[in-house]
Design goal:
Helix content is about 35%, strand content about 20%. It is an alpha+beta fold. Bound molecules: zinc ion (ZN). The site of zinc ion has 7 residues, from helix 3, strand 4 and helix 4.
């Protein structure tokens, strides 16, 4: 069962309310730990097994712990924002929220209340009023995703996903793991079909040949290269442009921007 539009609007409204309350007009103003503290939530880092973060709810205050082995600041910030979403939207429902990577996945597979916390986090970290102009400024590309992730201090995945939801361009973003489709993100007007989860991307795709060197830079992206559509979408004819970058070596997690020709 999915969340209703009102669930989405509640997440949006609560995030906006916080942005207004703390006078956030630029992503660099968004000091999450400080905002959490003012909301009576203490943020800590520590070892956690089998989850990315949790929130303990007391009567008047909350405690967030983020898994200390998370390497990327953008991912850590998303965890904190997600838990603040539970604190803001779901107080009184549970005394503890233990949130896994899959709960914080923005691909739509998370449970409804987890998804609502994700919407809250996305709006808090990448507010519409700041993000939409950026999404309209140039067509989506790996370089653009990296630039926006730096500007908003967010993960490449969550930034790319939001960029492809907001862009006026006709394109899609597909995340793969070991060469199989995990999730995709497309604007409502996209002409490319939805990528099938679990589909083994064809050998013609350049996503199989991208490599990773630390630190990750947009120069490591390959493409745009013309590849057969069938490499990404079974039974499709013609070609598309693919630009891919490898985010993690083992397992091979990659992002690909696909553009119809
Ligand atoms: Zn959660």
């Amino acid at each position: 069962m999915g969340l209703t539009d009102s669930g989405f609007e509640a997440a949006y409204d609560q995030a906006q309310r916080l942005l207004d309350r703390f006078c956030v007009s630029d992503p660099k103003d968004l000091l999450l730990e400080g905002i959490a503290f003012r909301l009576d939530v203490l943020v800590t880092d520590g070892p956690i097994r089998a989850a990315d973060a949790w929130l303990l709810l007391g009567e008047r205050c909350g405690l967030v712990r983020v898994r200390d082995s998370i390497r990327w600041n953008g991912q850590r910030r998303f965890c904190i924002a997600h838990e603040l979403g539970h604190w803001t939207l779901h107080r009184g429902l549970q005394q503890k929220w233990v949130c896994t990577e899959s709960d914080m996945s923005m691909n739509g597979s998370a449970k409804p209340l987890e998804r609502q916390a994700n919407w809250f986090a996305a709006e808090l970290l990448m507010p519409d009023c700041l993000f939409q102009p950026e999404a309209c400024a140039s067509p989506p590309s790996i370089r653009r995703i990296v630039q926006l992730a730096e500007r908003f201090c967010t993960s490449l995945s969550s930034t790319g996903l939001r960029l492809l939801q907001k862009t006026p361009a006709d394109a899609a973003l597909v995340s793969t793991k070991n060469g199989e489709v995990q999730w995709d993100s497309r604007p409502a007007h996209a002409t490319l079909p939805r990528a099938r989860q679990g589909f083994r991307v064809g050998p013609e795709a350049v996503v199989h040949s991208v490599s990773l060197e630390e630190p990750l830079t947009p120069d490591q992206a390959v493409g745009p290269v013309e590849v057969p559509r069938s490499a990404w979408y079974p039974d499709q004819e013609g070609s598309l442009l693919e630009e891919s970058i490898l985010l993690i070596q083992n397992p091979r997690v990659a992002l690909s921007v696909l553009t119809p020709i």
